[in-house]
Amino acid sequence: MATTKSQDPSGAAFTLNISNGEASKKKAEGAKHAKLFKTMKAIVDPDRIEALFEFDAKLVSYEPFSFLLIFRFQGRNFSMLMLPLILLGLLDLAWWLVLYQVLLPSNAIPGMENGEMTEDLRTRVERLDELISPILVPVSFLLVFRLGRAAVRYWDSRAAMGKLIEVCRTFISTAVVGCQACEAAYLQNTNLVAHVHKEEAKIELVRQFARWTCVFPIATRNFLRPESRVEFEACCNVSMVCNKRRKGGDKYIMGISPDLGDLISFEEATELQNSPFQPIFVLNKLRSLAWDASESAGASSCKQALLYRQLNQQIDTLTGAWGAMERINLTPLPFVYVAHLRTFLMLYLSFWHLSAIALNGWVCIPPLMIASWGLLGIEAAAVECERPFHWNKNHLALGKMGVVVAKNVHQTLLNCGYAPA
Question: What is the CA angle 126-129-130, rounded to 5?
Answer without folding.
Answer: 110
